TrEMBL record:
<dbReference type="InterPro" id="IPR004647">
    <property type="entry name" value="Fe-S_hydro-lyase_TtdB-typ_cat"/>
</dbReference>
<dbReference type="GO" id="GO:0016836">
    <property type="term" value="F:hydro-lyase activity"/>
</dbReference>
<dbReference type="Pfam" id="PF05683">
    <property type="entry name" value="Fumerase_C"/>
</dbReference>
<dbReference type="InterPro" id="IPR036660">
    <property type="entry name" value="Fe-S_hydroAse_TtdB_cat_sf"/>
</dbReference>
<keyword id="KW-0456">Lyase</keyword>
<feature type="domain" description="Fe-S hydro-lyase tartrate dehydratase beta-type catalytic">
    <location>
        <begin position="6"/>
        <end position="175"/>
    </location>
</feature>
<comment type="similarity">
    <text>Belongs to the class-I fumarase family.</text>
</comment>
<protein>
    <submittedName>
        <fullName>Fumarate hydratase subunit beta</fullName>
    </submittedName>
</protein>
Length: 183
């Protein structure tokens, strides 16, 4: 089923999604990869506030290439989400609405997705140049010293993703394998 949704995503929107749904997101999302997640964890450990409001927002696991002339961002493909798994349950418990990446997630992350009524989307790996065309603007908002791993606020329009793990814990990676083996 194709769906068009606004980001940040609401709990009601997340609850309406099912693993396998195609979703076109428009609105505001944030980027953060390994180094930014580590820095966010250190910030939380010091009792300080994160550089953007986590509650309801969405993190895209992506580090862009330099922008081409006339474009707000370069190639913007997803990175492997499991590298952020050690940090993700806490962010979900703080209200993170969703994540975009590629690849499997740990059982702890799946449990936290269900516990918090969140959602994990996958973007197509290898399609970074095409995905970048759905990004209207990009602004570094924190950790500029991290270069491509800095946190960015992106404005997106009809950004294509697939629901991999829905708020009920249904996991497309598991169900797709099962369906394939049954054929």
């Amino acid at each position: 089923m194709d769906r068009y949704m606004k980001a940040p995503i609401t709990k009601e929107d997340a609850a309406s999604l099912s693993a396998g749904d195609y979703v076109y997101l428009s609105g505001t999302i944030y980027t953060a990869r390994d180094a930014a997640h580590k820095r966010m964890q250190e910030t939380l450990d010091r009792g300080q506030e994160l550089p953007f409001e986590i509650s309801g927002n969405m993190i895209y696991y992506m580090g862009p290439s330099p922008a081409r002339e006339g474009r707000p961002i370069g190639s913007a493909g997803p990175t492997t989400a499991s590298r952020m798994d050690r940090y993700t349950p806490q962010l979900l418990d703080m209200g993170l609405g969703g994540m975009i990446g590629k690849g499997k997630r740990s059982e702890e992350v799946v449990d936290a997705i269900v516990r918090n009524g969140s959602v994990y989307f996958a973007a197509v790996g290898g399609a970074g140049a095409l995905l970048s065309k759905r990004i209207l603007s990009s602004e570094v908002i924190a950790y500029d010293d991290l270069g491509t791993e800095a946190i960015r606020r992106l404005e997106i329009e009809d950004f294509p993703v697939i629901v991999v793990i829905d708020s009920k814990g249904n996991n497309l990676y598991e169900t797709a394998i099962k369906e394939y083996r049954e054929e």
